[in-house]
Specification:
This protein is α/β, with parallel strands linked by helices. The chain has 6 helices and 11 strands. 31% of the residues lie in helices and 26% in strands. The strands form 3 sheets. Strands 5-4-1-6-8-7-9 form a 7-stranded mixed sheet, with helices on both faces. A hairpin with a 2-residue loop joins strand 7 and strand 8. The chain is globular and about 45 Å long.
Length: 210
């Protein structure tokens, strides 16, 4: 656990490619997607919140604060990150916020540790995860001091692109290895967008199990 880092799970999307509804509440193995994500992230951070819109009761039992977007209009992952930054600033004593997507159940259990190491000697820089030559902007370590700049970017510039904000403010990429499963290499940041993805995740979960 890193006591200087708060965590936010991004679960505010509209899941159009899955047919709508709450994608993170879909079952994967004996738990829900959101439970797999929380189980991986909770031990890595000092405190953990869940960014989701609508009735918070559907996440009852997780023991997490459910924080709705602080700006209207379902503005995408950046709105959830902004919400997390503002929450972590007012409700915690942390220095950074780490974000994680609520539909990505196999991300590394050393995510936070490695992102912090990369950010320590780069004040104000965002550390973002990458794998197999691609970066994953929703898995990143954000300095809390970026919250005002991010609100300006979203509200005044009306730009919702996570990668564009990162490029403007500086970032460092941290490469994570692929998962080895039954002779195949799987991206640890494999996210579930469609029913076929969910079926593939079920197979991967079984191959990684005891």
């Amino acid at each position: 656990m890193d006591r200087s880092v708060a965590g936010i799970i991004l679960a505010g999307g509209q899941s159009r490619r899955m047919g709508g509804g709450d994608k993170p509440l879909l079952s994967l193995g004996k738990a829900r997607l959101i439970d797999h994500v929380a189980t991986r992230l909770r031990p890595q951070v000092a405190t953990l919140g869940l960014n989701a819109n609508g009735d918070p009761a559907r996440f009852a039992g997780m023991g997490l604060p459910v924080i709705q977007d602080t700006m209207p209009g379902h503005a995408g992952p950046l709105a959830g990150i902004l919400t997390g930054l503002e929450w972590a600033t007012t409700q915690t004593s942390c220095r950074w916020l780490v974000s994680a997507a609520g539909d990505t159940p196999f991300f590394p259990d050393n995510l936070v540790e490695r992102l912090v190491v990369a950010a320590l000697d780069r004040p104000g820089t965002i550390a973002v995860a990458s794998s197999d030559g691609r970066w994953h902007p929703t898995f990143a370590l954000w300095p809390l001091g970026l919250r005002d700049a991010l609100r300006h970017f979203l509200v005044d510039e009306d730009d919702r692109r996570v990668s564009a904000f990162m490029e403007r403010h500086g970032h460092v990429e941290v490469e994570f290895p692929m998962i080895e499963a039954r002779g195949k290499k799987i991206d640890p940041f494999f996210n579930i967008n469609t029913p076929d993805d969910l079926a593939a995740a079920e197979r991967l979960l079984q191959s990684l199990g005891p």
